[in-house]
Amino acid sequence: MVYCLPDLPVSLPTATIPDYLDLEALANSFQPILENLIPEQFVKDAVWRDHFAVTGSMRSFYGSDSIAAAWKDTSKIHDPSSFSITGKPHLVRIVKHSWVEIGFSFVTNGTPALTCSGFLSVVPGDDGTWKIWLLKTILEAIQGAPSCDELKPVDGMPNTGPTNGINGVNGVKGVNEVNGVNGTNGISHLNGSNGTNGSHFNGKDFECIVVGGGQSGLGVGGRLQALGVSYVILDKHSEVGDCWRTRYDSVKLHTIREFAHLPFDRTFPSTYQQWLTKDDMARGYQDWAKKFGINIWLSTSLESGSYDEAKDTWTLKIYREGKEETITCASVVFAVGGGCQFPVTPSYENRGTFKGLTLHSADYKSCDGWAGKHGIVVGTANTAHDVAEDMLAAGMASVTMIQRNKTCEYATSVSSPNIVLIFCIVVIPIEHYMGTHERAYNEQLPTETGDRIFFTAPMAVGRLLGLMNLHNKIRNDSERFDALERAGFKLDRFGDLMYCMYERFGGHYMDVGGSGKIAQGQIKVKTDSLPIRYTEDGLECADGSHLKADVIVFATGFVGNLKLIVAEIFGHEVANKVEHFWGLNDEGELQGAFGPSGHPGFWMHGGAVGQSRFYGRFIALQIKARAMGTPLPVYDGQRHKYVKSPKGAQLLGMNRL
Predict the structure, then answer these.
(1) Which candidate in 212, 262, 278, 356 could, as Cys together with 550 as Cys, close a disulfide (CB 3.0–4.6 Å)?
(2) Helix (H) or strand (E) run with residue 107 in it
(3) What PANTHER family does this protein's entry cite (predicted)?
(4) Which one, of 312, 362, 285, 320, lies nearest residue 211 by Cα?
(5) In this structure, are 215 and 353 located in the same domain?
(6) What is the pTM of this model?
(7) pLDDT in tens, 349-362
(8) Which sign does the torsion angle of CA 523, 275, 608, 207 carry?
């Protein structure tokens, strides 16, 4: 797959904007033109990103002509109206780039009728008039349905702080009755209006079944509940939160606490530490599920599933409470995680000769009992560094990391001066990235507002802004990287964060102290030759050198093709229709995730905690619209086709920014 973001036709505005500007008058001047957008109202390389508002999916349109044509096409379908400027416009300045940000709202009058929001980023044009640089539109609600952003706690449960709903955006506060957290009695009661027929009391027939009870499954389940959709979450674990609780002992979240919430409230109030441990995550998830009465069947595995096209119905065979059961639904959300299904372990000669212990990081828990032994970690991403630090803390005689690729590093001085982010293949500091998180996610802003700030920008534009700032930080922190290189650690300082997140689906390291230990020589690094065979007491490398080991941990990643799991459970006919999960399409949008998958009534969901929280709302809204008999129309016109550009090749590493 080609990584397209460097080649997409986008740029950052360079026009000068004065400090003294009547922002409200400027914003009001754009209100009357929104109903009939034409190319002349945009800069030539403008971008429009739609979040299910009028395209029924995630779409990005590039260039004034394409945007105007797509707006005209979708307006014929949805008949948007009642455009209104919302909030206060504000001037944004980032280094030498500036624009004015204007919020707006509108409704659509097609089928279904929708309530939507949007943002304009406007700049002075070459002709002296103000023009649109970025247009962002967001589906907020289905008219006549409850809000997917608001859900009341069950009776008797505390409300831990303000809710995350956005006042004045949806204008709908419908909340449904809720279900027992264990789900053993099925769904006790749901609002019988707007597509929920109230016939699902037997716990066997649902409008939606969510497979997987991690952050993605819990979040979308809660939003379905808010919308009055009958649902159940199936999870193989015995307790809510076990997807985190069962991980290795030292794992921590590497994003700030305020970024980690599930929908509807602040899952992790200020009583939690800034850098959440696996046990913090598990406790927060369990408390959240109890608080909102999430309908989840624990210790339940999905054995197989089939789709009846004539009835538009899924039949799932599950194993629950020691027996097989059959349940049905109209929609399936497959939220089992997209990147950690099949561990990858290198194959070296003479495995039988090694007398020590080998294991993949998927099976690693801690270094208990390893004191005094010699340890090797194969790999240099997040888990590899965590394991190496654990080995050092456990008092192992030696710790060596085997680096197979260059690694990219990210450093920060925000809140915790020891936090550094390192990504395989590329190297970039994280301090600006953390600062961006804290500007969007803090105790003053509702989380739903932060999500609209953080996640709605076109991917290619977000990449340019992010790397511009990150690389400036790298240039001012050269000694950090010099020290790692002196220790033998291979670096590419000017790397691409988006590539790691959306094409590699990982392969990075956010340093919580490991880099300093490498620079100081406490953790050794082998980079000049790779292992080729086992010996009785370690590994022999291609250059003839020998690494002594009693324990070898392979932190070498996973094969994450979700289609393989879909085929195993639902069959090849279903799998052949769904898109690949993750990776970017020609428009710079994630393929296979959050929107139409290619198969009717089947959605795939996953990603980091923030992505799961925000994009899960759109999955729930699509399913609600389908349950109402008015599915969102999907617009497929004006698709951007990938074109390799010389400029894009130069900017892949972003050394010139």
Answers:
(1) 356
(2) strand 97-108
(3) FLAVIN-BINDING MONOOXYGENASE-LIKE PROTEIN (AFU_ORTHOLOGUE AFUA_4G09220) (PTHR43539:SF68)
(4) 320
(5) no
(6) 0.90
(7) 999 999 999 999 99
(8) positive
